[in-house]
Design goal:
247 residues, alpha/beta, Rossmann fold
């Protein structure tokens, strides 16, 4: 049975990096589908997986080529085939990139088929991890739905925690199908653990995990290098504090 994890949070908190590292940890236990649902797509760079096309681009092309679908093939079958062609395959992690939001025109029918086919495709993997865009829009549009674990990422700031709290609250108000919600403080420097716990407590936030700041990982991110082979303290913290009970 597929286990799905989605990441949310404001910009600049390192959620894409944590998503890539989580996919890397999970890949030691089974095949992973990584879905980049952030229009500013860079999950592939973090994973070291190159891709050629996005679902957004495919959707635009399909609306133009709807009359060119081979005889005897339904629209659903054609879209399923095209989605499979979009998957960039890695060794133990495959990547599917959503791309930019749709432009003008009605995409309701196409989007409905896309969602259904992605759900079917996800069932072929042991784990699915999704990196969402910054902010709250993906929740209100129900991009993040039917997930086992929603990881809401904050940095070591009061503003980051306040945003995480709002996302947590919104995810409850929208009655999304989410098994568990987890607020994670990321990039917490040595010696600031007690401070971030104190701030979270004052704001009525249940802080589920603290990810340490690691200079090696920070340098990799700054140099735009893949992090999938990183095995430092953040990697270990993900295994012990986020994925405990999952793997």
């Amino acid at each position: 049975m597929t286990y799905s994890i989605a990441f949310a949070g404001k910009g600049g908190v390192g959620k894409t990096t944590l998503c890539a590292l989580t996919a890397s940890v999970l890949s030691t236990k089974g095949l992973v589908l990584a879905i980049d649902a952030d229009p500013n797509s860079n999950l592939g760079e973090k994973l070291g997986i190159a891709y050629k096309e996005t679902i957004g681009g495919m959707r635009e092309d399909m609306l133009k080529e709807i009359e060119k679908i081979p005889i005897g093939m339904s629209k659903q079958e054609y879209i399923e085939l095209r989605i499979r062609e979009l998957i960039a395959e890695g060794e133990k992690i495959d990547l599917l990139v959503m791309g930019r939001p749709e432009g003008k025109g009605c995409y309701c029918y196409v989007n409905s088929i896309l969602r259904n086919n992605i759900d079917i495709l996800s069932g072929m993997y042991r784990y699915v991890v999704m990196d969402n865009e910054a902010g709250l829009e993906h929740l209100s549009r129900r991009t993040t739905r039917n997930v086992d674990l929603l990881i809401i990422v904050s940095d070591a700031t009061k503003q980051g925690l306040e945003t995480a709290k709002r996302i947590f609250s919104l995810s409850e108000q929208l009655e999304l199908s989410i098994g568990k919600r987890m607020i994670v403080a990321n990039m917490v420097e040595n010696g600031k653990e007690d401070w971030i716990k104190k701030v979270a407590n004052e704001k009525g936030i249940e802080l589920h995990a603290i990810m340490p700041f690691d200079k090696e990982l920070s340098n990799r991110v700054a140099d735009n290098l893949p992090v999938s082979d990183y095995k430092g303290p953040v990697h270990e913290a993900i295994k012990k504090k986020i994925l405990s009970g999952v793997i």
